[in-house]
Amino acid sequence: MNRVLADPSDDTKGFFDPNTHENLTYMQLLRRCVQDPDTGLYMLQLAPRGSALHQLSDELRQALRQARVTLASGPLQAQSLSVWELLFYREVSESQRQDLLRRYRAGELTAQDLGASLASLLARAQTATGSPGAEPSDTQGALRAATMEVRVGPLRGPAVPVWDVLASSYVSGATRQQLLAQFSSGSLGLPSLTRRLTTIIEEAETEKDSGAAQGQRRPGPQGPGDGPSGSSWVKTETETESESARRQQEQALRAATMEVHVGQFRGRTVSVWDVLFSSYLSQARREELLAQHQAGSLGLEGLVSLLTQLIQEAEERLSKVSFRGLRRQVSASELHTSGILGPDTLRDLAQGTKSLQEVTEMDSVKRYLQGTSCIAGVLVPGQDGSGRPEKMSIYQ
């Protein structure tokens, strides 16, 4: 029975979550279950009465359902998910969920703040567990998913990825490594990190404006005995111009959008930059297109047309790759949409660098196609005051 229910193609919402009073598919409910450390079975943990979840108003719940987060790493990379959905992923512990909801209910966090915190939490959980499809740098993934407002400078915008700010020329290499280490260890939270970055940018822009007002400019080439050589000055100028050109190119490609009718971006209007950095392109191909665009040999219209063609060709190849499901053949794209295949595996399949048999033997694919995991029961808040939940089987 579990093998039939776990079919990724089954979209019947015939299962009830007593925590949220929602009807879900079996796979959605399974995604909310936690693994019991004693038995290894999946259990649905029930929130205690009086918890922050049960005190949440319909208005606040609806705001979380409407707020969207696009994950930048892991099996669900590039998929737009509601903050409400992410809130109940098994990687979010009950205590973390209640704490986030308490702060959200009290007005300390907005729906977007909550989404950014969840994206960061999920990325760290993937790093800790080595879950299938996790990216090598999940800290980077979390910071790409989180956004911040930049009020001044070339990065100015209402929702700039934190990673883009951190990787910009505003932040020195030493400071960048220090902030990354603090964020990865948990000693520096996302709000504190964005405040630090805001301060760094504003101080740099203020200093630049002050220098311009005083008529300051870079010294010209000097003689052999007068200080830095002319060649060093020219090199510095060239590097600065190159960085500025790259920033301007990124801004232009982020502002430009394209409609995608197939694949993981189906039915969405996405930025050209996001498509360029999606799993459809290898790093070498991405750098080649960026270089052609920056040199002027590939215009924006041509780039969009080429990206559309690449996506269509990749999806056409993937449509011919299918796995033997319990009711019918299941396509690779469906497995990716279900969070079973990661973006790297999907790209390897599309490019032919990984065979169907190799992917079929992956634990993540076996687990869902062959039904090696199932919902075994629920975890009920304990009555003895110890805080330890009691296990109840489905039969009980």
Outline the structure in words.
- The chain has helices at residues 2-5, 26-31, 58-66, 83-87, 94-105, 111-129, 138-145, 162-166, 173-185, 190-213, 230-255, 272-276, 283-295, 300-319, 332-337, 343-351, 356-360, 363-369, and strands at 15-17, 22-24, 34-35, 42-45, 68-70, 80-82, 147-150, 157-161, 257-260, 268-271, 322-324, 329-331, 375-380, 390-393.
- Mean pLDDT is 74; it is low at 1-9, 130-137 and 216-235.
- Among the domains are: 3-125, no CATH class; 256-316, no CATH class.
- By secondary structure, the chain is α+β, with helices and mostly antiparallel strands.
- The longest helix is centred in the middle third of the chain and has 26 residues, at 230-255.
- A four-stranded mixed sheet has the order 3-4-13-14. A two-stranded antiparallel ribbon has the order 1-2.
- It has 18 helices and 14 strands.
- The protein is globular, with a radius of gyration of 25 Å.
- A hairpin with a 4-residue loop joins strand 1 and strand 2.
